[in-house]
Specification:
By secondary structure, this protein is mainly alpha-helical. It contains two helices and no strands. It has one domain. Keywords: Coiled coil.
Length: about 80
Amino acid sequence: MAKKPTRSDYKKKVDRLKKDLEKVRTRQKELAEKEKELIAATKEAEAEYVLFMLKETDTPVSLLEDLLVTDNQGGNV
């Protein structure tokens, strides 16, 4: 027969799940920060590229607008 869970067993399980949840929340915060950093870096690189294209080529501005990266909501990144 299986041993009946005790109060201590339940407490251990709850504590473990709380710890796991905190790890997930911490990781989500880290990923959100990383996402912001990547968005900023993308915008900077894109701006440098557009400036290069304007200075070094005869590419019309209207064509450069098509090169802009857009996010998944359709807005410029």
